[in-house]
Amino acid sequence: MSRLALLLARAATPAQEARVGDQTGGRVAFFLESDDFARDHAAFGARGVRFVEEPRDEAYGRVAVFLDLYGNRWDLVGRRSREGG
Fold it and tell me: Residue 12 gets which letter from DSSP?
């Protein structure tokens, strides 16, 4: 079983606090890959996760942008199957 850890630093100064949720200038900062996009998108929505756009199809798979508790943007990504090429 693989393990994932994510360490986030707490803002330590007023200037850092002012940037919380905007560290990336409004761009997606993090990517969460799902092995079942529809399941996870529905589960996140049921738990009150705020998606800022509808799911869309890209060349690599299905993606939807959501916000974490601090306003950081994440991509929920369901990769397209690589079977058959």
Answer: -
What predicted TM-score, i.e. pTM, was given to this entire model? 0.75
What confidence tens digit (pLDDT) does each residue in 8-34 have? Answer: 788 899 998 888 877 788 889 899 999
Q: Exposed, middle or buried, 64 (CB in 10 Å: 0-12/13-18/19+)? A: buried
Tell how far CA 36 is from the center of its chain.
15
Rounded to whole angstroms, the Cα distance separating 54 from 66 reads 10
CA distances from 75 to 16, 46, 68 (A): 24, 17, 11
| Identity of the amino acid at 80 | R
Around Cβ 73, how many Cβ atoms within 10 Å?
19
